[in-house]
Design a protein that fits this description.
Elements: H1 2-30, H2 32-49, E1 84-85, H3 91-96, E2 104-106, E3 109-123, E4 130-134, E5 139-144, E6 151-152, E7 157-163, H4 166-194, H5 200-229, H6 234-243, E8 249-253, H7 288-296, E9 299-304, E10 311-312, E11 317-322, E12 326-334, H8 338-347, E13 351-355, E14 364-368, E15 370-377, E16 383-391, E17 394-400, E18 403-408, E19 415-432, E20 437-439, E21 442-449, E22 452-458, E23 460-463, E24 467-470, E25 481-483, H9 487-500
Antiparallel strand pairs: 1-22, 2-25, 3-12, 3-19, 4-11, 5-7, 5-10, 6-9, 7-8, 9-11, 12-16, 13-14, 13-19, 15-16, 17-18, 19-24, 20-21, 21-22, 23-24
């Protein structure tokens, strides 16, 4: 019995190590998802600590390392090499892929906002963008100073109208007659007061004249208000009272969305300024800041409805002007996205707009604010409309003789897309999509190392049409200089160079 037990123990001792090793290996395989990512990230951080970064001119030729052979190859760097270097690119290739000094930037951590895309269109601001110019009186057009499509400044002359309004002529005539009668009464009262007191007759006449003066004063006030209802201002009524001449011609000037000092009707004897000249009209003086704003923010004569010699009735529209300085972007979101819009509006998150068919520099606008959300659902499209303020700017100006024409950057009717944030990720490395090359499940960026670039494999957490979010796991660090364009082209150049490289230098690129 004892011998059998000893034989069993010797046999178990021979199999103990193989069985234990098998159990350990099986446990490692089963728990790979737990320990492998941590181990991999640790190895990457250790490797990244030994990398040396230096910002240099990418257009300079690589400096050959010491100890290189006649072909410029350093055999000392074969052992332990953990990254690949982009081959030397010519100036023509660099220009073709758009890689310059200005497109190599240092990495920084920032917050990334995941967003949804909503279709939108540029629209006018109601009550602000479109300005209607109408005549307050009946008359005939004697002169048109501006042409359709021209840029006109606020306060400049647009039309001259010969007044034929019978009620206005009669009202002015009665007003002038009352002014004259009142002056006669005042002169008579002054004369009677100089006569020595000669009894009750003189006192009774003076009292009657004073009563007559009060009646004329009340009538003159009523006639003054009647002229104001016809469209005349207080200063113009005072001018008629002073000169005793009727207003026969009407001047229509370009109104302003912000300044209403030029809205009154002008007399023809005041200095005229055609719409093509940037000169202030009338007795209203503007500051230097106002003059500068007027010069840089003209209105466009969008539609002209009248011509010289045409008769117009009171209230008839003469032209339409457009003020394109401030527009709206009208977004059309589905009902399921209402909570997303409300969240972005309540948190003050900025939205981005992307225009189709525009150059790359101006196709995307960031940091736009949501102005307001509609309080009803479109019954036909089943969408919720919301509005984003869009500041505009002048893209181009040209002069044709004495006339000025302006092209604005944005205008109503343009189609675009709005990116509304739905989630915020702090402390992320965010790169343009052109800065990251993708091949299968791998993502690569090109990090500047002296006067060349190293291809670095990175972990991409998120990718859309415009940006790629890189995990901040130590592979890339804030301050590393990375090529922001041409990553895919450099990746293909590196790949082709590696395929064509002869042995024994396969995998190493000159």
């Amino acid at each position: 019995m004892r011998r059998a037990m000893l034989r069993f123990m010797k046999s178990a001792g021979r199999w103990a190590w193989p069985v234990s090793l098998t159990v350990i290996l099986a446990a490692c395989v089963l728990t790979r998802s737990i320990w492998f990512p941590t181990t991999r990230d640790g190895v990457r951080r250790i490797i990244a600590e030994f990398r040396q970064d230096a910002a240099g001119d990418i257009s300079e030729r690589p400096v050959e390392p010491a100890g290189a052979d006649s072909s410029g190859h350093d055999h000392a760097i074969h052992a332990g090499q953990d990254k690949e270097t982009c081959p030397k690119l010519s100036d023509e290739v660099l220009r073709n892929i758009g890689l310059t000094k200005d497109t190599v930037h240092p990495i920084r951590l920032q917050s990334f906002r995941k967003s949804i895309t909503v279709p939108a269109v540029v629209v006018e601001q109601p009550g602000r963008t479109r300005v209607q110019v109408a005549t307050p009186m009946t008359g005939a057009i004697t002169h048109v100073h501006a042409v359709e499509g021209e840029a006109v400044q606020p306060g400049t002359l647009l039309f001259q109208i010969r007044l034929t309004h019978e009620d206005l002529v009669k009202a002015q005539t009665n007003f002038v007659k009352t002014v004259g009668d009142l002056e006669i009464e005042e002169n008579e009262i002054a004369r009677l007061r100089k006569i020595p007191d000669s009894g009750a007759v003189a006192g009774r006449l003076l009292l009657e004249r004073e009563y007559a003066k009060e009646k004329l004063t009340a009538l003159l006030t009523a006639q003054h208000e009647s002229l104001r209802l016809h469209g005349l201002s207080d200063s113009q009524v005072a001018h008629i009272s002073k000169t005793r001449r009727l207003l026969s011609d009407l001047q229509m000037f370009t109104p302003s969305s912000d300044d209403h000092s030029d809205d009154e009707i002008r007399l023809t004897r005041q200095p005229l300024s055609p719409a093509t000249f940037n000169v202030d009209v009338g007795h209203h003086h503007k500051s230097a800041a106002d003059q500068k704003n007027v010069t840089t923010a003209p209105l466009i004569l969008q539609k002209l409805n009248v011509q010289k010699g045409q008769s117009v009735d009171a209230g008839e529209t003469l032209c339409f002007l457009t003020d394109l300085r401030h527009l709206y972007i009208e977004g059309m979101a589905f009902e399921s996205d209402i909570h997303v819009l409300r969240q972005a509006s309540q948190r003050g998150w900025k939205v981005s707009a992307v225009f189709d068919g525009m150059d790359e520099a101006s196709s995307r606008i960031d940091e736009l604010e949501i102005a307001w959300l509609a309080n009803e659902i479109d019954a036909v499209r089943r969408t919720l409309h919301f509005y984003v303020a869009l500041p505009n700017r002048i893209l181009h100006e040209r002069q044709r003789g004495a006339r000025r024409y302006v092209d604005w950057m944005y205008f109503s009717g343009q189609r675009l897309q709005i990116h509304v944030p739905v989630e915020e990720w702090p402390n992320r490395i965010v790169l343009p999509v052109d800065a990251v090359a993708r091949e299968g499940a791998e993502y690569f960026v090109f990090k500047q190392n002296g006067n060349h670039f190293d291809r670095i494999s990175v972990h991409a957490e998120y990718r859309d049409r415009y940006s790629v979010v890189i995990a901040s796991d130590g592979t890339l660090r804030p301050g590393d200089f990375v090529a922001m364009k041409g990553a895919y082209q450099m990746h293909m150049a590196l790949k082709n160079n590696a395929l064509n490289a002869p042995d024994p230098h396969a995998g190493h690129i000159h």
